[in-house]
């Protein structure tokens, strides 16, 4: 990549302080030190590329419903939901931008620095306005001299185009701080995304009230609408293809490292979606016992297992979260298979407990019970009964984590929801969660037979609660041991 254009210094007599002044002025939006002729030349000769009569994005009717629900919850209050800003990676390079979940959920837009404002209208209801950076000004040089000018970063939608696409009136985001400063009445802001908005609102908001907004937006996403369910299915389907890509290239991973697996899956995520929804866990051999192994720099060896936990995030920012544990050479050893079958059985019990009216905790309890039974059966817990093991939670030395979580735009979705609506809540149609039991025997665990050490198995699927039970959105990937082996044999050819 190239650097931002630095205005040339006109003559030798330019002093250092003049250069500093020039840079300061540029930062103020003025662009000196290019010749008058060039500046004049760059103003004109550009075609009008305004697009007309754009159709609304497919999500527009759903985002309108979501805003209406939000409006009903906070009548008479001004609500401010920022997309967030670019974050510096190093010097003048930034991380890839990913709009805040709250903003994208309510607008279908993903523009950096965008802000959704819901203005209360009299007694009930709100008027939504989207504050965005408009197209670059060509008269003042912003277009080609500013690092965020369209010449550098690409064409933006005009405000009129954004209005048509998103179904929300749009204004220049540079007007927003002053508008917020002038505004009176109660305000709530989603914190943590846009420091300039927080600064503008600092005297008008409270942490408690802002938190209520954040909690509402988390709980609103507990039940997915039809658009969201279709997106999650899309994410799972793309993820399944990514897993197939990995199996097909396992020989190359064996010749290099886990990084080949990470890169292979990432390629699929970028082709079919926006990104990976979280750092891929590409854990071969004993790395499978490290729950969040994302260094992915280890060796991939035949005879060991690969635990791959990865998910494609769609272009509308819904992510899958799928794990398969695969024998790298295509065939489970007897001990690997014994442990794998136990986890499979636990997952089956967990999935069976996902249905409308069930307590959220049920699927976790069902899976933990199966795992505890297996650990007792294998003699790893002495003479203790399964009931006693579960009562004391002793199985957790090897099961380690909860059996699942809500899934959606965030991989750990709805994380701000209150305990009573999430962990202590009841499942209903439209809820989507992961069921992902595992068993992990650390390489240095002296309490298990030596041959267990360094084996980690997790199987994770994305389960939608339906009217009469559930649907496994990721069931295009095999789970049963013999089916996994047959699938791998076919793909490895
Ligand atoms: Mn998960």
From TrEMBL:
The keyword Hydrolase applies. One of its GO terms (molecular function) is aminopeptidase activity. It is an enzyme of class 3 (hydrolase). Keywords: Aminopeptidase, Hydrolase, Manganese, Metal-binding, Protease. SUPFAM superfamilies: Creatinase/aminopeptidase, Creatinase/prolidase N-terminal domain. Residues 57-198 form the Aminopeptidase P N-terminal domain. Residues 1-19 have a biased composition (Acidic residues). Its EC number is 3.4.11.9. Its cofactor is Mn(2+). It catalyses: Release of any N-terminal amino acid, including proline, that is linked to proline, even from a dipeptide or tripeptide. Pfam families: AMP_N, Peptidase_M24. Gene3D superfamilies: Creatinase/methionine aminopeptidase superfamily, Creatinase/prolidase N-terminal domain. Residues 1-21 are annotated as: Disordered. Belongs to the peptidase M24B family. This is Xaa-Pro aminopeptidase. It comes from Streptomyces sindenensis.
């Amino acid at each position: 990549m190239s650097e931002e254009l630095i205005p040339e210094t006109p003559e030798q007599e330019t002093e250092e302080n003049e250069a500093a002044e020039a840079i300061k002025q540029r930062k103020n939006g003025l662009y000196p030190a290019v010749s008058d002729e060039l500046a004049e030349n760059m103003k004109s000769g550009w075609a009008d590329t305004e697009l007309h009569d754009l159709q609304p994005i497919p999500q527009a009717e759903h985002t309108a419903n979501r805003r209406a629900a939000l409006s009903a919850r906070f009548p008479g209050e001004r609500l401010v939901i920022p997309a967030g800003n670019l974050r510096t990676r190093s010097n003048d390079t930034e991380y890839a931008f990913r709009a805040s979940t709250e903003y994208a959920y309510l607008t279908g837009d993903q523009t950096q620095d965008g802000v959704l404002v819901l203005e209360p209208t009299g007694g009930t209801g709100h008027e939504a306005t989207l504050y965005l950076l408009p197209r670059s000004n060509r008269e003042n040089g912003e277009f080609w001299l500013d690092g965020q000018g369209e010449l550098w970063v690409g064409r933006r939608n005009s405000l009129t185009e954004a209005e048509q696409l998103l179904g929300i009136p749009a204004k220049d985001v540079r007007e927003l701080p002053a508008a917020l400063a002038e505004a009176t009445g109660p305000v709530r802001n989603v914190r943590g995304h846009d420091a300039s908005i927080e600064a503008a609102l600092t005297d008008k908001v409270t942490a408690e009230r802002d938190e209520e907004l954040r909690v509402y937006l988390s709980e609103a996403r507990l039940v997915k609408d039809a658009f969201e369910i279709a997106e999650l299915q899309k994410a799972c389907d793309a993820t399944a293809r990514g897993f197939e890509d990995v199996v097909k290239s396992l020989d190359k991973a064996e010749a290099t490292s886990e990084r080949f697996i990470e890169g292979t899956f990432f390629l699929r995520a970028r082709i079919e979606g926006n990104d990976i929804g979280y750092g891929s866990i590409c854990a071969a051999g004993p790395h499978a016992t490290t729950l969040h192994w994302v260094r992915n720099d280890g060796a991939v060896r035949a005879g060991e297992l690969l635990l791959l936990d990865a998910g494609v995030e769609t272009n509308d920012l819904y992510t899958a979260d799928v794990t398969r544990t695969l024998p790298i050479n295509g065939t489970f050893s007897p001990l690997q298979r014994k442990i794998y079958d136990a986890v499979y059985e636990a997952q089956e019990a967990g999935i069976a407990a996902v249905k409308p009216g069930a307590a959220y905790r049920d699927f976790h309890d069902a899976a933990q019970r199966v795992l505890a039974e297996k650990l007792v059966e294998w003699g790893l817990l002495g003479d203790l009964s399964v009931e006693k093991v579960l009562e004391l939670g002793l199985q957790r030395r090897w099961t380690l984590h909860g059996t699942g979580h809500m899934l959606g735009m965030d991989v750990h979705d709805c994380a701000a929801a209150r305990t009573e609506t999430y962990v202590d809540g009841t499942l209903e149609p439209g809820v989507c969660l992961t069921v992902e039991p595992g068993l992990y025997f650390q390489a240095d665990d002296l309490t298990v037979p030596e041959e267990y050490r360094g084996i980690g198995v997790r199987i994770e699927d994305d389960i939608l609660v339906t009217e009469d039970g559930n649907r496994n959105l990721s069931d295009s990937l095999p789970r049963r041991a013999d089916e996994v082996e047959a699938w791998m044999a076919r793909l490895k050819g």
